[in-house]
Amino acid sequence: MKKKTTKSALYRIPLCKPYISKEEEQAARAVFRSGWLMQGPKVAEFEKLISDYVGTKFAVAVNSGTSALSLALMAVGLHGGDKVLMPSHSFVATANAAVHRGGEPVFVDIARGYYNIDPSKIEAAVDKWAHVLMVVHQIGFAADMEPIMSIASRHKLVVIEDAACSLGSAYKGRKTGAFGEVACLSFHPRKVITTGEGGMVLTNSEKIAGIVRSLRNHGLALTGKSKQPQCEMAGFNYRMTDVQAAMGIAQFRKLDKIIRLRTRLAERYRDKLSKLQALALPKWPEGSIPNYQSFVVEVADESIDRESVLNYMTQEDIECRPGIQPIHREPAYAKKGINENLPETIRAAERSFFLPLYPAMTNQEQKTVIKCLKEAVNKHARTKEAR
């Protein structure tokens, strides 16, 4: 019997699985045969495809979504001591990028059921040191950008969209990533399309795009009459390779299909689970369309212990995960005593959990998940209404 080597292989039904096939292998092989492996024509092609799709003038590929966040903050002129408003309900990279640039994260609560920053809570967090508003489109759901952009304009805040999870999601006819001064994407395997590791900065500003291009390549740029690139600023080696970009191009060509498959699965979840009063399903702003990067549910019946439900699913060889760990509860931030008055963020962290969802998921696999989840809820419910 072949030994299982990956975490997902431990489960009969994993939480997620990249949608990879022979096209990605063939694309990578073509790059290998070309002899040009580092950043080159495939990176430029990938950038053009993404910028055209999202609707921005410029796209700059980098080696990770975290690098994209860091370079975006540098490019918009974040200085030491500047405050960066953001939700705590996000992966820790959102705050880490700000801290590494000398910024101070200021956490704003989310709206119940929406899992994104609550526009009505933003203004209370604004003071004279607030410089950037980092909007995270979490779990593939668009944040409510109309009031957010209005608030940002009123207070002269630079909007950076952390769109790591939301490529393909839309809000009132525009793709996420097309609203702020800058947006950042991730192509980690948990995302809708993947390059293994990788990220991208999107912007309509030629100046910002130029700064990011220079910074990703050691700060080198052509300036003045020089025919050779010169180091204009202390930069980094954050380049994406042509191998990764070739894989990304093959993935991009499947993007509409991937979102369609995810949507079909998500709609089935919503249909079948809406009948369980013990669970609450996610919401999104009117006029927006999610890409269903993940599918999250929340235990609404407080008599049910979420961990018991997760343990039951695990025993059935189904991988489910607890909701997002708030950044302000991570040890690196908790010891600073940063803004702990985030009740909806805490509620989501303690009551929500992720269900398996991936494009290649079969109808039978999903039926099994739904059946086991209903069994888990009913087994651990103490109230008749939960049944």
Number of domains: 2
Order of the strands making up the biggest sheet: 1-9-8-5-4-2-3
Tell me the radius of gyration: 21 Å
Strand content: 15-25%
Instruction: Please tell me the CATH architecture of the largest domain by its name.
Output: 3-Layer(aba) Sandwich
| N-to-C CA distance | 41 Å
Flag low-confidence runs: 1-6, 383-387
Report the oligomer.
single chain
The outline comes out as globular
How many β-strands, per DSSP? 16
Using the coordinates shown, work out and report the CATH topology of the largest domain.
Aspartate Aminotransferase, domain 2
Report the average pLDDT across residues. 93
Q: How does the helix and strand content classify structurally?
A: alpha/beta
Q: What is the makeup of the main sheet?
A: 7 strands, mixed
Helix and strand run: HHEHEHEEHEEEEEHEEHHEEEHEHHEH
What is the level 1 CATH name of the largest domain? Alpha Beta
CATH level-4 homologous superfamily of the largest domain: Type I PLP-dependent aspartate aminotransferase-like (Major domain)
